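Try this one yourself first.
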């Protein structure tokens, strides 16, 4: 006959193993590098603002934080993330090259919704008139990065 102490010890061992396995699964992340390779702006236009929405993902980092910009990221716990950015001084306005490998995003399987990235880029010639360019999944180049480990949320 197995004692209660052995049963309790066995049960705790099973629970611990299940928790460790779940933690290991959560530590694996699928990170992707975002680009907008064919952003159509005129040679005399500059990027003065942008807004990005990520569904079923979070923004891990911006690869180059430009000086003279205000960038705000809301990594909501619902895995619906927004990034808003705007130039503070006209001299800091960007060209389209900024959007080459500009952000690292973690995709999640914790959402019922499919992974999606979309947004809007605002450009200007004279900083008084702004033209808005809509960007969707078809406009983004999404490159898979090697699996990484992250801290537990």
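Now uncover the answer:
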């Amino acid at each position: 006959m197995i004692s209660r102490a052995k049963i309790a010890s066995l049960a705790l061992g099973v629970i611990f193993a299940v928790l460790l396995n779940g933690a290991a699964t959560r530590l694996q992340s699928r990170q992707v590098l975002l680009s907008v390779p064919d952003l159509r702006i005129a040679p005399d236009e500059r990027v003065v603002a942008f807004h990005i929405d990520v569904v079923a993902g979070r923004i891990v980092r911006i690869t180059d934080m430009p000086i003279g910009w205000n960038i705000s990221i809301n990594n909501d716990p619902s895995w619906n993330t927004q990034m808003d950015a705007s130039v503070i001084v006209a001299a800091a306005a960007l060209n389209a090259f900024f959007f080459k490998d500009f952000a690292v995003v973690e995709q999640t399987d914790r959402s019922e919704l499919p992974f999606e990235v979309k947004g809007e880029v605002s450009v200007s010639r004279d900083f008084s008139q702004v033209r808005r360019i809509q960007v969707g999944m078809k406009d983004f180049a999404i490159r898979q990065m090697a699996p990484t480990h992250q801290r537990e949320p």
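Discussion: The chain has one domain: 29-146. The beta strands are 28-35, 46-55, 57-62, 69-75, 80-87, 103-107, 116-124, 131-135, 141-144, 148-149.
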